[in-house]
Input
Amino acid sequence: MSEKKDTQVKKVAIICAKGTIEDVYAALVMANGAVMEGMEAKLFFTFFGLDAITKKQMNKLHTATVGNPAMRMPGGLPFPSLLGVIPGVEAGVSAMMRSQMDKLDIPPVDEFLDMITAGGGEIYACKLAVDMFKLKKENLSNHVIDIITIGDFYSMAGGEGSQIIFT
Output
């Protein structure tokens, strides 16, 4: 008789490399969902994803309007990418996105980080990106445990039942 192997996800390690509302919130929603399900969750913010954990930027994220093939206008029509270069359009689209999120009671980034860390989730910043953008620990959210290398992140991301997710 064969023994059934446990394939349940026990830990998620999420890498957020983009700083748009849709990319950052994808990482935050997945991490929050993981901690709510009793899983271990570790978030690693790198490159433009650092905006999500940089104090000056974290609650000022924008939606990408140029080159975003999934962008839709009201009614479902494709959003002409050329419109995104008109001054004020990106800010307007981002404001609409935040308004829709407010209606759904989706918290701002700093509150989302509060929820994730209160549930046991861990937040890390990428050393290479922090150095590249000339940031310091004091520029980052207090939720950030440490500034680490990707090798450090991989070493803590492993184990049976672990998944690495890249957003």
